[in-house]
Design goal:
With about 425 residues, the chain is mostly helical. Helix content is about 75%, strand content about 0%. The protein has a single domain (about 60-425), classed as Na+/H+ antiporter like fold, CATH 1.20.1530.20.
């Protein structure tokens, strides 16, 4: 591995770590810092890092991070709470997410006339999942009502796993390039992708969770290995599904969802792993994103890509959210707040890397450019606006008394918890 890259990782971890508590009170988020450092050290900056986009280490890191993120995001979601108190997240996922993909595809066809319909839907699906970690102040601030925070938190935790099979199916369609396959081929493909992966994930999550829980309760497993068990189960689900022709990423998501709802006694240890080791992998991806993907995208980005990126963060996200919240009783300010804080981040980066690694996409370069530009703008705009807007919205909604925003809900864990959010947000 490049020595300069290792030095960059070490220095930025230590320097940002030294100010991390103070940064929680500002608009400087960890993803923004790591993207900025990566870009500064890239060939368009100081030129200290010159990594190849096709580097196998980069793609390996991306796959490992996606497996872990899908698993850990799913572990956080307690389905009983979602059924009981999940009116807002279910609206965002069942209505908002499909509408976002449809509107995003329509916008892509209008802005990029040469883009095929399957590729347009693929672009929209890649950019549909949200990454609440880019606006961490929003989901950690006690000023923001718990119901609103949890709506954004649960939406972010589930929409990447929901969008993933859609992305994979659309990528397969977009890669056909006029070729046709038999009905038997597609039935087998869909069956393995949408049934094989989930079944393996269900088995690994249930049996693995039972094993870890029993070993913990009997005193056989210590705390460090309780935390590491999450990585082991995520990788086992991924490898097991891939070995039988299923999709390993879907399996990892289902394994996490199953474990999180059948063995909650071990989940606290997994959260700790996700906050430390999991965050390290995530930040490495953002550093590579800034050093490798952003310079390439900026070199090819045109006005159309910029327009679509801005629309993706505003109209394409905010209109479906507003439609999904009709009848919820929320105030217009809440519509706008929830609509704006749908950052595009880690899932979109990893989805486009996985799709491009498979090759055969004629529109691959365009998709990568648009996705990278959208995530770059989101990292900046949502990162900078999260802290001040959380304070302003919190102050505004505090004056609404018994409004629906204040209905009590169970507070589920977030991907990365601010250490002192209760006293500083």
């Amino acid at each position: 591995m490049d020595l300069a890259f290792l030095v960059a990782v070490a220095v930025v971890l230590l320097v940002f770590g030294a100010i991390s508590r103070r940064a929680e009170r500002s608009s400087l988020t960890p993803p923004l810092a790591f993207v900025g450092v990566g870009l500064a050290l890239s060939p368009v900056g100081l030129g200290w890092l010159d990594l190849s986009p096709s580097n196998e280490v980069i793609h390996g890191l991306a796959e490992l991070t996606l497996v872990l993120v899908l698993f850990m995001d799913a572990v956080r979601i307690e389905l009983s709470c979602l059924r009981r108190e999940g009116n807002l997240p279910l609206r965002l996922l069942a209505i908002g997410l499909p509408l976002t993909i449809v509107l995003g595809a329509a916008g892509a066809v209008a802005i990029f006339p040469g883009l095929g319909l399957a590729a347009a839907f693929l672009l929209a699906a890649i950019l549909a999942p949200t990454d609440a970690a880019l606006g961490q102040s929003v989901i950690s601030s006690p000023r923001v009502p718990v119901r609103i925070r949890q709506a954004l938190n649960v939406e972010s935790g589930l929409n990447d796993g929901i969008a993933l099979p859609i992305v994979l199916m659309l990528a397969s369609l977009a890669a056909l390039n006029g070729e046709t396959n038999s009905l038997a081929y597609w039935l087998r493909f869909v069956g393995l992708q949408l049934l094989g992966g989930p079944l393996i994930g269900l088995a690994v999550g249930y049996l693995g969770g039972w094993l870890v829980l029993r070993a913990t309760q009997s005193g056989w497993m210590n705390a460090p290995f309780q935390r590491l068990s999450g990585l082991g189960l995520a990788l086992l689900a991924f490898a097991g599904a891939e070995s039988v022709g299923g999709n390993g990423f879907i399996a990892a998501f289902i394994a996490g969802l199953t474990l999180g709802n059948t063995a909650r006694g071990v989940c606290d240890s997994l959260y700790q792993f996700g906050e430390a080791e999991g965050q390290l992998l995530t930040l490495l991806v953002f550093l590579i994103f800034g050093a490798v993907m952003v310079p390439a995208a900026l070199a090819h980005a045109g006005a159309e890509a910029l327009v679509y990126a801005l629309l993706s963060l505003t109209l394409i996200r905010m209109l479906p959210v507003a439609l999904s919240l009709l009848g919820s009783g929320l105030r217009p300010a809440s519509y706008a707040f929830i609509g704006w804080f749908g950052p595009r981040g880690l899932a979109s980066i990893l989805f486009v890397l996985v799709v491009l690694e498979a090759g055969r996409l004629e529109a691959g370069a365009l998709l990568e450019t648009v996705v990278v530009l959208t995530v770059l703008l989101s990292t900046l705009l949502h990162g900078v606006s999260a802290y001040p807007l959380a304070r302003r919205y919190g102050a505004h909604v505090a004056l609404t008394g018994e409004a629906p925003e204040h209905e009590p809900v169970t507070e589920l864990p977030v991907r990365v918890q601010h250490s002192d959010h209760a006293s500083t947000a």
